[in-house]
Design brief:
Elements (H helix, E strand, L loop, with lengths): L9 H11 L5 H10 L2 H4 L4 H4 L9 E3 L6 E6 L2 E9 L1 H6 L1 H17 L4 E11 L5 H21 L3 E8 L8 E11 L14 E6 L9 H4 L20 H16 L5 E4 L4 H13 L2 E5 L11 H6 L5 E6 L4 H10 L3 E9 L3 E6 L2 E7 H5 L14 H4 L11 H10 L7 H4 L10 E3 L6 E4 L6 E8 L1 H6 L1 H19 L2 E10 L6 H20 L4 E7 L3 E2 L2 E2 L3 E10 L16 E5 L10 H6 L2 H4 L10 H16 L5 E4 L4 H13 L3 E3 L9 H6 L6 E5 L4 H8 L4 E7 L3 E4 L3 E4 H10 L8
Parallel strand pairs: 4-5, 9-12, 17-18, 24-27
Antiparallel strand pairs: 1-2, 2-3, 3-6, 4-6, 7-10, 7-11, 8-10, 9-11, 12-13, 14-15, 15-16, 16-21, 17-21, 19-20, 22-25, 22-26, 23-25, 24-26, 27-28
Helix pairs in contact: 6-7, 7-9, 15-26, 18-19, 18-22, 23-26
Length: about 725
Amino acid sequence: MNYRDAGLSDGEYGRIKEILGREPNELETALIGVMWSEHCSYKSTRGLLSQFPQSGSSVVQGPGENAGVVDCGGGWGLAFKVESHNHPSAVAPYQGAATGVGGIIRDILAMGARPAASMDGLFFGCPDSSKAVNLAEGIVKGIAGYGNAVGVPTIGGKTFYDPCFEGNPLVNAFNCGLVRLDSIVSSKTARPGDLAVLLGSKTGRDGIAGASFASKELNENSKESRPQIQIGDPFEEKLLIECCLDLRDGGLIASMQDMGAAGILSSSSEIAHKSGVGIEVFCDKIPLRESMAPWEIFLSESQERMLLIVSPEKLDSVKAVADHYALECVAVGSIVEGDRYRVFEKGVLIADLPVSILGDAPLVNWPSAASADAETRRTLPENMSSADPAGDLLRLLGSESGRERREIWEQYDCQVQLRTAEEPGFPVSAMTLPDSDALIIFAMEGEPWKCRAEPYLGAAETMAQSLRQLVLAGATPLGMTQCLNFPSPEDPANFYELSECVRGLATVCRDMECPVVSGNVSLYNETSRGGIYPTPLVVTAGLVSHCAYYLSCGEARAGDIVYLAGPAQGSLGASRWQIVCHGGYGAGPRGATWRYDPEIEKSFAERTLATSRKSCAASARVIAGGGLAVALAKETIFSGVGFEIDTEEIAKHGITEVLFSEGGPRAVYMVRPDSEDKFLAIWDGYPIVRLGQAGGDSLIVKGAFELSSRELRRAFYDGDRLLLKR
């Protein structure tokens, strides 16, 4: 194999020869090439990711393991992570999405945690394209087909539509699991004398070189460059889950690693590298589905496999548990002293590398420069006013990214395991904590339009908005996981946007003391037609100490008083109103979003948490996509009660900004009259305006519009039926 075929540059190959003191053979070249791929090594982003805060009072395990773990109290840990499966889903939508779900579940399992809940971040092309519709249908079916069968509920997510995702949809799979803090499994605890044991499915040719495939632009006209896509078997995965948890409970494993990108190669070399040991792997001991060359065996990404590290005296007991679940279980290698990664075939040494060369790819510092039209992007278009607020609100409610998505999430089993406390369709997702009255809350956010218009502010708003959703619900943030979805970093403008987005996320995380415990980077998301918009997706996790403190939405009742907490206006920059109602799809998102201010965010967080803990509000919504008008409309739809709103006091800069602007620490609260004084005392010193009262069957904004709940529901639930055309 030529080093260029392995994805290595001239400079990288020269560095390899310098480290080895010789030319690598073909197998060694293939092994290094995959481990130095962007997907495995993060060589373009490791320096950027160092900006993230990684420690905090709740952090048990930060980056460096298969998933992060935070302390939820009562001896329980929450393991969670989000991963991308973008390129495979673009080529084979059903299996690409299904195996993305399976892979992230195994990451959680590798921590010794029982997988408890999944979420999905889906970014599709607009549904007026048959290609986008076909991709979306296959992806959603793949998520449902795998998640439902494996018995892990899908409790929420995010779905977003824009033409930039036409040929390169994003599938970001999130999973979390629960583990007793004294039962966490590590990938850093292998010791010389231990055995490397392969558990699960036999190895085949599926997914060979998948990591390299995920590290380059999609070529729509070149099928030969694409790997054979992995095929998932959720029933085998269910057996694997139960087997691994039994092995954990029996104290039979010293370490465990999922076989994800680069399969046996990455799992074995990562365990060795993290543990500071060497490893020897024997090709002829690996169970195969078909005859395969050594490089194929090591780069295969066959699914439903785990690598276990086991003491020799425990191997028979491990095999007995595996036999109970009818799973393949074979010792395929040994942990040794030193720093060598050695591969043998029929007793012959065929690869001999330093473990460190596989685990420490050299960093790449790409040129960085703002795009030529950066100033135009961050400048608001002129004449940003609504001539028809009622019509605009209905359009927003019925738009691709704004309308109800029941036809997606009703395909998912969201109640299996019986821990789901809030079904999909709400701003946050919630599940119960065992042996406790507490709730674990998740908020998933992604803002491609805002990040395209102004990367730093867009990413800061993405992170801040996720935290606002948590604290409004009454949850104290525990930590965050992220997936950075970007086009090629080799373009200076793209790398600039990536760098600025990371800076924006990191700034908010540091200021708001929200540690980043895990994450993923997915680059080269582009086709010959162009790249995706910068799309950092974040999932924050938080804890509501008692379910009585959880504050949801859709609970307004006639007589409730409506308050706007926070500044009257956010920004129309790169807003949903701008794109849907002001011709943004053609021109692209324009205008900087809300300018992040840590002191205002902290003040908002303190007051929202106090409001929930003192039970001062009946219902509440963060003002996000579509602005105040959409927040009020959704409250009307979900609660079944109308509102009469007077915006005269806050409409000094125009009704459009009041109704449709986004961003900033702002929320609309529905307060029972007997709680009003207590509510106002909490919000004293922060912008707070009484907007009106709940009652009747229509949403009335004086001087702007009156829309019946029937009209609002028709727009939200029916729209143009664009999400997934059957």
